[in-house]
Every structure is written in C-alpha cells, then in structure tokens.
C-alpha cells in the first residue's frame, strides 16, 4: 500500500529531523577536516561522548535545557535550528510534491535534498566562513543527477537542443549549462574584481555554490537568487557592521548564508508553494 498524504508528510518530517542532526555533524566537522563517521558525537567543550538518549533531535536539547549533561556548557542554538528547519523543509517539499501514486515524486526528493544542502551551507558559512566542497561540488553532481528524473523549465536548452530530443536529455542539458554559465559568470566577475580592486570580492566557495544552484534550479532562478542575496547581503551586512561596530573594510560577510537563504525562499515561493495549492 503506497504511502501518501499525511503519513508521508509525517515520515518526511521525521526524516528531516534525523538528516538535520547529521547536517549539524557536517557543519562542525567538515570545516575542521574531521570524519563525519568516526568517532561518534561528542561535546566540543569536555569532549565526552554523547549518549544516544542525549542525541535525539530537538527533544534532547529541550530535556537538557540547552546544556551538556557533563560539563554544563551551552549547546549552540544552531543545533535545534538546523534540525527544525530541515524537518519543516522536508515536510513542505513532500506535502507539495509527494502525492503521486507511489507516495513520492522525484521533485519532492529533489527539493528536499536541495533544502538540506542549503541549510548546511548557510550554517557552515555563518559559523566558519567555509562552504565545504562536499556540499557545493557534490551538490552540483547531485543536481545534475536529479535533472534526469525531475523536469526543468527550458531556457538555455531551447536555443541549443531541438524539441525532438527526449525530455530527460533536455533537462540534463538545462541543468549542466545553467551550472556552467552561472558558476562561470560569477567566477569571471570575481576574477575581474580582484584584478581591478586588488582584493577578493567573492570566494571560490561562493562560485561553486552558485554552480550548484544552477544545476538544481536552472539559470533564471539561479540569477534571481544571486540578485536577491546580493541586495540582502548589502543591506543586512551594513546594518550588522554598524550595529556591531565592525570595520566595514575588513569584515568578511558570510555571503554563502545569504545565498542559501535567498535560494530557500525562491525555491519555496516559485516551486513548493504553487504545488501546495494545486
């Protein structure tokens, strides 16, 4: 019997909680070149291993009142926020796209996976100013794979491939060219800025992240994300720098976090929300 409707959404939400817990491991370990598999979870303060009952997503944070059981150090709010946001994103994606006869759809899985990637990158960039290749370059590959199964609106491919080609090939071509053009365009702008101003304007991690967004969303939504993130980063960055009394010339803005937030918003508004109301 296929899983559809409310049971599927509940399962997807619970899966999002578990994946959110794993994303927290990635946020902490990948920038520090630590394995995400070994050892098992430990407290960064006292380095004691965390028991399974203290590692239940959201629930353990509440029961422990946001502190380590052993050293009583505060557990960063990033942990429950990542778990909760991933659970909500998974629930919404499967509510929007998970109502097929088989109980799931390629679009639902695609946008749920993209949500998880974006949440990890937002948290990682905000905390460490690092966008791990495992999620940018790896995410680009995953986006290309999903394009074979999930439809992509034609844009560039309309000028390159005749309509007679099978849809899967057209979707893959759209994803690949969007990743290449999106990432390549931003790399060129960053390169030109560095040559003219003799300072970095954008890191390679941001360029890889934009290529990943192109692979998942296509070039029009990728460029819309970039524009939205740039405006939000400019306004939000100025406000934060002024409020925190930082030096505008030296403060490193976590642009990847703004890119992730803009991409999540645009994905929800243009893809998920319309499907929820069909």
Q: Would you write up a description of this structure?
A:
- With 278 residues, the protein is mainly α.
- The chain has one domain (5-276).
- The chain contains ten helices and no strands.
- It has helices at residues 5-29, 59-63, 78-97, 106-128, 133-147, 157-160, 167-197, 204-217, 219-244, 255-276.
Keywords:
278 residues, mainly alpha, globular
Summarize the structure.
Helix content is 67%, strand content 0%.
Mean pLDDT: 89
Which stretches are poorly predicted, pLDDT < 50 over at least 5 residues?
Answer: none
Total count of domains: 1
The radius of gyration computed from the alpha-carbon positions, rounded to a whole number of angstroms, is 20 Å
Using the alpha-carbon principal axes, give the shape.
globular
Q: Kindly estimate the percentage of residues that lie in beta strands according to DSSP.
A: under 5%
Assembly state here? single chain
Query: How many helix segments?
Result: 10
Percentage of residues in helical conformation = 55-70%
Largest sheet: none
Count all strands and give the number.
0
Q: Helix and strand succession?
A: HHHHHHHHHH
Q: Pairing-aware structural class of the strands and helices?
A: mainly alpha
The end-to-end span amounts to 24 Å
Topology:
Elements lengths: L4 H25 L29 H5 L14 H20 L8 H23 L4 H15 L9 H4 L6 H31 L6 H14 L1 H26 L10 H22 L2
């Amino acid at each position: 019997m296929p899983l559809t409707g409310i049971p599927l959404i509940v399962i997807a939400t619970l899966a999002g909680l578990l994946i959110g817990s794993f994303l927290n491991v990635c946020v902490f370990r990948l920038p520090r070149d630590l394995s995400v598999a070994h050892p098992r979870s430990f407290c960064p303060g006292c380095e004691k291993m965390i028991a399974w009952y203290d590692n239940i997503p959201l629930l353990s944070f509440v029961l422990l009142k946001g502190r380590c059981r052993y050293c009583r150090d505060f557990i960063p709010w990033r942990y429950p926020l990542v778990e909760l946001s991933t659970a909500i994103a998974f629930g919404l994606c499967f509510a929007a796209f998970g109502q097929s006869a088989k109980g799931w759809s390629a679009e639902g899985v695609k946008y749920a996976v993209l949500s998880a990637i974006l949440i990890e990158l937002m948290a990682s960039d905000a905390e460490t100013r690092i966008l791990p290749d495992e999620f940018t370059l790896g995410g680009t590959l995953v986006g290309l794979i999903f394009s074979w199964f999930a439809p992509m609106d034609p844009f560039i491919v309309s000028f390159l491939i005749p309509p007679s080609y099978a849809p899967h090939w057209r979707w893959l071509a759209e994803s690949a060219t969007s990743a290449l053009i999106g990432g390549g365009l931003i790399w060129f702008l960053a390169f030109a800025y560095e040559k003219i101003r003799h300072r970095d304007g954008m890191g390679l991690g941001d360029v890889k992240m934009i290529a990943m967004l192109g692979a998942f969303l296509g070039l029009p939504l990728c460029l819309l994300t970039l524009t939205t993130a740039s405006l939000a980063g400019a306004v939000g960055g100025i406000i934060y720098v002024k409020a925190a009394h930082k030096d505008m010339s030296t403060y490193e803005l976590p642009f990847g976090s703004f890119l992730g937030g803009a991409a999540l918003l645009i994905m929800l508004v243009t893809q998920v929300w319309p499907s929820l109301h069909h």
